[in-house]
C-alpha cells in the first residue's frame, strides 16, 4: 500500500482543486508542476474523487486501476467527477468554493474466495460477473452501517446490476484505500 505524508495529502488535494478550478472557473490558481511533483506522484494506481457540498455527496467517479501516473489519474477523475457523474448535475463554477474534495487512492485488487475475508471499514469491494461490475469504497459500509451481506448485496444490485444475491456467483475482490479529504 502506498504511504502519503500529511504534506503529500495536502499537495494532492490542492492539485485536485487546481484541476477543477482550471476546468470550471475563470479564476487562476497557481500550481507548479515541477519534476519533484511529477516523480513523487507517478505511481500507477486506482483512484476515486468524491465531491461534497455541506457533507452531502455531490459527485464521485474513479477508476479501479490505472495505467497512468497518479497525478494524471487525479486530473482525469477530478474533471470527470465534476462534470460527468450521471447521478448529479455538472458542478457549476459558483459551486466550486463550497465543494470539498476527497481523494481515495486504491491498493491493487486482491481476489477473495469468501465474504469472511472482508473487513468492514478496511476493505473496499469490487464485484464482477459476466462483464458487469460494481464497487464500493470502504467508507460506504461504515457510513451506511451495513453488514458484510448488505455491503455485497447493495454493490451487486445497485452498482453491478446483478441483483441482490448476484455477488454469490460473482468474482469478489477487495482493496484498501488511502483517503484524504479537505476540511
Description:
- By secondary structure, the protein is an alpha+beta fold.
- It folds into two domains: 6-106, Hypothetical protein ph0010, domain 1 (Glycoprotein, Type 4 Pilin, 2-Layer Sandwich); 110-177, 2-Layer Sandwich (Dna Ligase, domain 1).
- The protein contains five helices and eight strands.
- Strands 2-1-3-8 form a four-stranded antiparallel β-sheet, with helices on one face. The chain has a four-stranded antiparallel β-sheet with strand order 4-7-5-6.
- Helix 1 (6-24) packs across helix 3.
- The longest helix has 19 residues, at 6-24.
- The protein is globular, with a radius of gyration of 17 Å.
- The two termini are 24 Å apart.
Structure summary:
By secondary structure, the protein is α+β, with helices and mostly antiparallel strands. The chain is built from five helices and eight strands.
Structural class: alpha+beta
CATH homologous superfamily of the largest domain? Hypothetical protein ph0010, domain 1
Give, in order, the helices and strands: HHEEHEEEEHHEE
Distance between the termini: 24 Å
Could you outline the blueprint of secondary structure elements for this entry?
Blueprint: H1 6-24, H2 35-40, E1 47-53, E2 56-63, H3 70-84, E3 99-106, E4 110-112, E5 124-129, E6 132-136, H4 138-144, H5 148-159, E7 171-175, E8 177-181
